[in-house]
Automatic annotation (TrEMBL):
Name of this protein: APC family permease
Location of this chain's protein in the cell: Membrane
Alphabetical UniProt keywords: Membrane, Transmembrane, Transmembrane helix
Organism: Erythrobacter westpacificensis
Domain of life per record: Bacteria
Membrane topology of this protein: Multi-pass membrane protein
Length: 457
């Protein structure tokens, strides 16, 4: 039995239903997309910021094509690691790209945890107190760890309940705000600056990040009921639900606040938009919904990232140390995930966390599409035109986002480049050491993951 099969057998197959998968996917997306990123997107895109969400949904739908085709063929827990290994073989490209995906998930945890903290402290006027934001964000991450440590059914059941509360609550807020404010005031009464078309395009990187929660579903494929059918269905339903919610909220915020007001309150823009439309009670209602959405987002993201890291470790694509901890690799990965996420939540603000996540995710996504196009297209029955369109869309958005950030915050571009370089270099060093250690033992070399997949140059 290869390491992939061994990992699959160690998990609870069929423990996540279609509804549970949708709840997990939307939990990650809505947690990041609405409460953490609306202000960031509006700052770049101006009055046209609702269109950024539409563009993000279109690019994400193209991107999802590769993941759906691969998951329908080979549903797997830690599925993106499986996709990359089948596309590139168990080498540096596959392991480094999978590591970037895992890191983007962990970055998302810290992003949403800080958003949770900002909304939790907003009623007390303490949202600008740095150490308090960090402390509350860490508490949210620890809580997410405890829920995940309780098992898959706890995560799935918790996600269903939380998603129902937040989707219903956000929809009520959005519809009521639009009804109260109309669509002719606020940001939508401001002139559109055509000279900022490049910034609008760059904002799509944040919008894509708002939809990337669909990968939570891909990474839990081996644990879903009837995964060959339900993984693809769950992804598309999750994206459809989120675009409806995102557009409603974007229209509600844009009709209630000017762009300058959205930017000023960008870390808590929904709560700020609720106050002029509904007064103090509306403000508190939005805060409660935000806390529900963000904590469920952290839980779902911890779930996905830890399973992906466990898969990479079982495939011997990552080094692993127990550090004296008891239990198996899965429990260790939960600890590593929350430690890294907690560290990021302390060191970076929301804008930089979101930017770093966008860089990591877009580069990884392009590697997935290229690998499927080059090596697996015929095997999974994928169309080259759609794969090329997904590659082109990612490339254009990444280029625009990089140019925009070089103007406004060149340091985060440097951090992203250094981070990606460290991931590739670290994986090359680790895998080189693995090859040297096993080169004299043919039997172990066979067990190291060469289970029929071709190593591609």
């Amino acid at each position: 039995m290869d390491t992939h099969s061994a990992h699959e057998d160690s998990l609870n197959k069929g423990s996540i239903t279609l509804l549970g998968g949708v709840a997990m996917g939307t939990g990650v997306m809505i947690g990041a997309g609405i409460f953490a990123l609306t202000g960031q997107i509006a700052e770049l895109a101006g009055p046209l910021f609702p269109l950024s969400f539409v563009a993000g949904a279109l690019v994400t739908s193209l991107a999802a094509y590769s993941y759906i085709k691969m998951s329908n063929k080979w549903p797997s827990s830690g599925g993106i690691a499986m996709i990359l290994q089948k596309a590139y073989g168990p080498g540096v490209v596959a392991s480094a790209a999978a590591m970037m995906m895992a890191l983007s998930m962990i970055i998302n945890e810290s992003l949403v945890a800080r958003t949770f903290a900002t909304y939790a402290l907003r009623p007390f006027g303490l949202e600008d107190t740095g150490w308090l934001v960090s402390a509350v964000a860490l508490a949210a991450i620890v809580f997410a760890y405890l829920v995940n440590a309780a098992g898959n059914k706890s995560v799935s059941g918790f996600s269903v309940v939380m998603s129902a509360i937040k989707v219903g609550g956000i929809a009520i807020f959005a519809v009521a705000a639009i009804w109260a404010s109309g669509l002719s005031g606020g940001a939508f009464s401001e002139p559109v600056e055509l000279s900022k078309a490049d910034a609008l395009l760059a904002s799509v990187a944040f919008s894509i990040l708002a939809f990337k929660g669909f990968t939570t579903i891909t990474n839990s494929g081996g644990e879903m009921v009837d995964p060959h059918k339900n993984v693809g269905r769950t992804i598309m339903v999750s994206i459809a639900v989120c675009i409806v919610i995102y557009l409603l909220v974007a229209l509600a915020v844009g009709s209630s606040l000017s762009i300058s007001e959205i930017v000023q309150a960008r870390d808590y823009s929904l709560a700020a938009a609720a106050r002029p439309a509904f007064g103090q009670m509306g403000f508190y209602f939005t805060v409660v919904i935000a806390l529900t959405a963000t904590i469920s987002g952290v839980i779902a993201s911890v779930f996905a990232a830890s399973r992906m890291l466990a898969m990479l470790t079982d495939m011997k694509l990552l080094p692993h140390s127990h550090f004296g901890m008891s239990g198996g690799i899965q429990s260790h990965m939960l600890v590593y995930t929350v430690v890294i996420a907690g560290t990021l939540a302390v060191l970076f603000d929301l804008s930089r966390i979101a930017s770093l996540g966008a860089f990591f995710y877009l580069v990884m996504d392009m590697l997935v599409h290229w690998g499927v196009l080059r090596n697996l297209r015929k095997e999974v029955g994928a169309r080259a035109t759609i794969l090329l369109a997904a590659l082109a869309a990612d490339g254009v958005v990444l280029a625009a986002f990089t140019v925009t950030k070089l103007r406004s915050d060149p340091a985060i571009v440097a951090y992203a480049i250094i981070g990606i370089a460290i991931v590739f270099l670290g994986q090359w060093i680790f895998l080189s050491g693995q090859r040297k250690a096993t080169s004299s033992d043919p039997a172990e070399r066979i067990s190291d993951g060469h289970s029929g997949d071709q190593e591609h140059p």
